[in-house]
Amino acid sequence: MNARLLIGMMAIVVALAACGGDDATGEDGTIEGTDVVVEMYDNRYQYTEIRIPVGGSVDWVGAGRNPHNAVDAEEAWSTEDAFGSLEQYEDEAAKLVYNTPGRYTFFCTFHGNAQGAGMAGVLVVGDA
Q1: Can you tell me the distance from the alpha carbon of 108 to that of 75, in angstroms, rounded to the nearest whole number?
Q2: Are 47 and 38 in contact (CB under 8 A)?
Q3: Taking a C-beta distance cutoff of 8 angstroms, is the pair 63, 40 a contact?
Q4: Which residues pair with 111 in a beta bridge?
Q5: pLDDT tens column, 10-46
Q6: Could you give phi then psi for residue 77, rounded to 5 degrees?
Q7: What letter does residue 114 receive in the DSSP assignment?
Q8: Measured between alpha carbons, how far is 63 from 66 in angstroms, rounded to an integer?
Q9: Residue 62 forms part of a structural domain
């Protein structure tokens, strides 16, 4: 195998590894995928728009010094359901699977509100 072909193959492997699975992230605060991870920083979510298919999941991970959570404004789901507490701290995770299609406004009960102000975002499940 010549060196040029080997270098080309290595570049392709590196590029594929950098893609990181089936998640597509946008610079506008969006993420789309089947199983996504969303970090909850101090007073903001890593992504403010999340798109997953029906049956997809979101791992809500604490990434700040303060407690955080994610709660549906209509009370259909909460990270408390999976984690057992509304207070998640750094490196604590709650994985939720979403089987009902819809458009959900979510917020942190410590740093946002159900009207979408502050630490809040939108979760779209399916083609809603």
Answers
A1: 12
A2: yes
A3: yes
A4: none
A5: 333 333 333 334 456 666 789 999 999 999 999 999 9
A6: -155, 165
A7: T
A8: 9
A9: yes
pTM equals 0.79
> Is residue 15 included in any domain, yes or no?
no
Domain annotation covers residue 9: no
Report the CATH number at residue 28. Answer: 2.60.40.420
Do 43 and 65 form a contact (C-beta atoms < 8 A)?
A: no
User: What tokens were used for 94?
Assistant: 């709650």
- Are the C-beta atoms of 81 and 104 separated by less than 8 Å? no
Count of residues making up the chain? 128
Tell me whether residue 28 is in a domain: yes
Find the domain containing 75 and state its range: 22-125
- 3-class DSSP state for residue 124? strand
Report angle CA 76, 78, 79 to the nearest 5 degrees: 155
